[in-house]
Write a structure and sequence with these properties.
The complex is a heterodimer of chains A (58) and B (234).
Chain A: H1 2-9, H2 17-35, H3 40-52
Chain B: H1 2-41, H2 64-94, H3 101-122, H4 135-158, H5 162-178, H6 192-233
The chains are: A mainly alpha (58), B mainly alpha (234).
Chain lengths: 58, 234
Amino acid sequence: MTTVTKTATASDADSVLIPALVAGFIGLAIVFAAGLIQAQTLHDAAHDARHSTGFPCH
Amino acid sequence: MAAFARIVVSAVFAGAAAGVLAALLQLVFVQPVLLHAELYESGILVHFGAGAVSAHQDVGGVVFGRDALSILFTLLIYTGYALILVALMAAAEARGAVITARTGLLWGLAGFVSVNFAPGFSLAPEVPGVAAADVYARQAWWGVTVVAAAVALWLIAFGRGWAAWGAAVALLLAPHLVGAPEPDVFTGPVPPEIGAAFAARAFGVGMAAWVMLGGFAGFFWRREAARAGAAAQA
């Protein structure tokens, strides 16, 4: 397992950086929209999920 | 492009699986406490009012539209977290870390500490009706604390030497020494027993959901690697 990982990733170290950044940014945007934006409709729809997952609400 | 697809596919599967299970756990364990609190928030029940109020209330059953929205948003939140988590896993693997379903459990636990427990240490999960400071100030403090805790845990896991570990300790402590935004006065109408139960349940479900998310993320990340390897050989 370890040797497979090393040989597979030594050349991937640079090529994974940009895709990881883009995917992480999309994830941030989703979390921001679902958890933090205070627009009334969005807040009301997400209310119970936000409280339950520990986001500051209201 | 192949790496991006592998990250997104792994994250969507992991986020969907953990998100559905998290939503079910929330509806069973957190939602009844939340609905009970709302009876006080709306004034239907009054704590320390004219008469004693029974601790056992009919909080209602499944409310289809409301609960469907909760499931949808829980799915979204955990899919968003999954995209960030798998992206970090990919970056760590490129630096030599071993990512599997088993190590993923630890990643999930670290996610719980970063996103739920670290901010919740000073800004406890809020039951509806609690007094609280300005929401934007709390959100800003929440965001900074989550990022600081995540960086700290990365430094503890992958950093080498006392400088990295010292920085991690400072990052973990600083937001709480500065302090979270707090209300000027307490005006919450909800009994403290319900508030405490809510915080405990939110933490418990959050930990279970995050550990599952980490495990699933590691599992699907490995499976997509095996699939890519098989495709390359074919």
